[in-house]
Structure formats: C-alpha cells, structure tokens
Amino acid sequence: MSDYSTDLEIANAAHKKPIEEIADLLDIDSDDLIRYGNDKAKLSTKIVNSLSKKKNGKLILVTAISPTPAGEGKTTTSVGLVDGLCQIGKKAMICLREPSLGPCFGMKGGAAGGGHAQVIPMTDINLHFTGDFHAIGAAHNLLSALIDNHIHWENKLNIDPRRITWKRVVDMNDRSLRDITSGLGGIGNGIPRQSGFDITVASEIMAVFCLASDIDDLQKRIGNIVIGYTRDREPVRAKQLNADGAITALLKDAFQPNLVQTLENNPAFMHGGPFANIAHGCNSVISTKTALKLADYVVTEAGFGADLGAEKFFDIKCRKSGLEPDVVVLVATTKALKMHGGVKKEDLTEENVGAVSKGCQNLERHIKNIEKFGVPVVVAINDYVTDTEKEHSAIINYCKNLGIQCTVSSHWEKGGQGAAELATEVAKVADSNSAEFKTLYDDELSLWEKTKLIAQSIYGASDIIADKKVRNQFKKLEDDGFGEYPICMAKTQYSFSTDPLLMGAPSGHDVPIREVRLSAGAEFVVVVCGEIMTMPGLPRVPAAEAIGLDENNEITGLF
After folding, report:
1. Last residue of one domain, picked from the residues 197, 230, 251
2. pTM given for the model
C-alpha cells in the first residue's frame, strides 16, 4: 500500500481479527457477545451489568481547537492515542460516537479516524453499522406518530396543535425538511399544522439514549420527554401518551454497546452519536462507564472544538453521570492554526511561523477554558507531511510559556508507534491524579445566568442578547420546574462567536439567542444561537457524488 493510499484503501488492507479475540483482550467471554458478522458485536446487558463493582480506569478526553476546513483530526488523534497507549504496554481502549449518514454524504466526512489511525470495519461503521441510528430515528418518529394520532382521534390530553414542540427526524442532511406543513389532504390525514424535521443526531431520543445509565433509566427519561403543551400551556409528557414502553422496546438492542477494533486490533466501543454543535456531542454514558471497568486507560472524544464538545462533556455528561476525566488532550494542527492566523486555505502548505503563532491565540483560549474545569491539559500536534520543524517549535514554545506540555504525534502516518511519545506523556499526567474536576456552574443558577456564564467565560463574549419572546421562554421553563437543568448550546463550531467567519480568539462580541428548546428527558435546555440549524443542508458538491460500487461490489469513494 502506497503512502498516498486513501483511508478506505488502508482500512480495506487491514488485518482484522475475529471480534472474539478483541473481546478476549478485555476479558469478555464470547458468550457475552451478540455478533454482527465476524468483525463487530454488541455486549450483552448481562456483562455490562456485572461490571459495576470493578475499579475504574483512567478517563482521557480528547478535544480540539476550533475546527477549520483544513482539519484537526480529533478522532484520528483519539485512535492513534489508544494505539500508542497499547504500544507502550498499557491496557487501553477507545470510546467513540457512531457517525451520522448526514456528514458522510455531505461535507464533513466520516468519524472512524484516518490514515493509519482508524477504527474498522470503516465502511460498515460509517454507513449502517449495527442499525442503532435507524432504531433511534424509528423511536423518535413513533412518538411523532403517536402525538398526531392522539390529536386525530379525541385529544383527551387537550394538546394544542400550535404548541407541539416534537418534530420528526431523518439521518440525512435535507434542508427542504426544516419547515413543513403536515396533515394536508383532508380530515382523514390528521390536523394540518406547521412542523419540521431535525437530523437524527439532534433528536432528544439520541440525547436520552446517550445519557441513560441503564434500560430502566432510559424508559424513565423517555417518559419524561415534553412533546408540547396543552391549551392551558401545561407541559405534556411522552408517558401521558403511553409511548415510553414501545419506544424503549425499539431501543432495547441498540442500547447495548458496540465493540469493534482499531487498525492495530485494539478494542473500541462506538455507541451513540449526538452532534456537538446542535446537541451534547458525546458517546453514550453506558459505553464509557463499561469501558472504564474493562481497561486501565479509556480514551474518549467530545465533538468539535473544546468550547462546544468539551464544555458539554463536562457540564452535561459528567454532571449527569458522575464521570470525572483525569486529563484532556487538546488537538491542533499547523494548518488550522495558520487559518486562525489569517492564512487562506490555498496557502496553507507554505511555511508561515508568524501565522502559526498568531493562530495560537485560539489554542490558548481553549487551554484556559479547559483549566477552568480543573483538569490538566496536554496539547497534541497532529502531524502533517507539509509541517515544518519551525512551525512545530512555534507551537511547542507557545505552550511552554503557558506551562503546558505539547507533543508532536505522527499517528496518521505511523499509527500507534507515531503516537507513543504522546501516549507516554498523557499516561503520566493521568497517573499523577492532579485533576480536581468541577463544573462551570451550579445547578441553582438561573437558566439565563448559566447561558450568560458560558458565553462570557468560554466564548469570550460581552453578553447574550434575546428578544422578549425568548426571554419569556427562559422564564416559562423555570416556572415549569426546569430551572436546575444545565444548558446545551447550539452554536456554530467554527468560531467562539456566532459568526463562523470570525476566527482566532474574538472577544467582546454579543451572542444572539434565537430559540430555547426543552429536553426534559435528557434533562437539559437547548439554547439555539445565531444562524445554527438543527437540520443541516448538503454542500454544492456533496460527498455522495463520489461514492459507489466497483466491479467486485465493494464500496468506493468513501474517504
């Protein structure tokens, strides 16, 4: 295989071990596997429940600087790091989110890593995998159908069709579905009303799925989902529609963690997958907690930059689950830092130490943000073949002046061997027990003040702004008893501001709030900022146009 092989070619050339051998590395008996072919399986509920009294390993969170079109390689670094930990003799595994079909066929690409730091089988993982997302989409839309059916017949709950907040979902980027009118065509088709679709990864069912501690907690959370309001403006929950049992039944198999392997045959869980710009951006609590019982070091990631994924990992996932990270790995690339320093994409291959140093302002903001949560930081430079030693030195020296260890990692090119130095440093910090984790805010703070604190402390904003209607939404949620919930910010991932073109480390901007959404099952409040959409659209030239089958019926064009 040449040095210029595609991710797909590298993945297809990998030597996959039977999934039973991967399970054996974790002391999991083959009888506790539910196999999906030879190379992937789910863990039975029995083995998951049996691990509760075992000691936890070290939890390592991988996050990144603000993403750019140049790429940061957060997932690639996560995979390389776990392979590196295994290279230096540690018992380690990785916990990742499952990819959404939307970005696979759109612009962002897959979520199984890249180069020689991938999780396999790559095509299966990026497409249908074990069917979890289909189950989540079906569960969500079952609730949608039950709502409309209840109103169609007698509407005993007095649901106001104008105040239904529960949309439908599809796991695809389809801008034409953002706003729709349903129920047209006569009385037999239901009551006409305005509604819309979100992408499946923005579904509250996805959030509930990823935050539930066990199957009973999953059903309880589903029952607590608020689907809309009565004509008296009282919240209506899914359990009032007797929907929680059937929805949980649809999710029973999907709720079991998925076991796969890296290119170097190290164990990986991939389970759940909320986006971090419009949802909470972390893999399932049940897979993370299970992994911590099975390995001494568990690497997990949080979506997009640390201002979104990491903040939500800390303030939502950790708050709700009791998880406490031991160290954070912050990923950066010279190309991305040059873009934050003002360099155009077409000029990124040229050495520009000045732009790298200027772009490090973005890196510094993320470092200081993470330190607010009491967790030590290690910076990882995801090495590119076009990088220069001077550019690497500029980043390393910048970090040194901040008192932060910075390590170059060549996992994309060399796999675990290229990440061994990073792995050694990360393990040392994790083993130092220096983390003193804390959330950014207390539950008792008002919803408005929580939102403002995130904007000011994490985004560097001057203030948050909203019209009277939105301010009233905040007050209504507190009056209804949801004031102690944490905040899930829906915001562009490309900037600390709500302007995706404002790169670097902007300060003093206002964060406009367009909408507030209650997720009573997930137990957080979604605050929609700026122009962010919970149903993305496809780019001018979608990635789907390059995907197909070859003469051997093998998938081509997938990264």
Report:
1. 251
2. 0.95
282 & 217 share domain: no
Rounded to an integer, what distance in angstroms lies between the CA atom of residue 205 and that of residue 280? 12
The C-alpha atoms of residue 354 and residue 203 are separated, in whole angstroms, by 43
CATH number of the CATH domain containing 200? 3.30.1510.10
Residues 380 and 349 in one domain: yes
**Cβ within 8 Å of residue 413, ≥6 positions away:** 3, 115, 116, 383, 385
Strand positions, DSSP E, 344-449: 377-382, 405-409
pLDDT tens digits for range 468-503: 999 999 999 999 999 999 999 999 999 999 999 999
User: What is the DSSP secondary-structure string of 132-193?
Assistant: HHHHHHHHHHHHHHHHHHHHHHT-TT-EEEEEE---EEESS--GGGSSEEES-SSGGG---E
The verdict on 233 and 321 lying in the same domain is no
Token digits of residue 396? 């390393």
CATH of the domain at 458: 3.10.410.10
Residue-range definition of the domain harbouring residue 472: 447-529
What does the block give as tokens for 489?
Answer: 């910010």
Most distant pair of Cα atoms in the chain: their distance: 72
pLDDT at 70: 83
Same domain, 247 and 353: no
Asked if pLDDT for residue 308 goes beyond 90, the answer is yes
Q: Say if residues 118 and 222 touch (Cβ distance below 8 Å).
A: no
Residues 411 and 381: beta-carbon distance below 8 Å: no
Q: Which residues contact 194 (CB under 8 A, 6 or more apart)?
A: 179, 180, 181
Count of structural domains, the chain: 3
Q: What angle do CA 168, 173, 175 make, to 5 degrees?
A: 75
Residue ending a domain, choose from 230, 251, 272? 251
Per DSSP, what are the bridge partners of residue 282?
Answer: 302
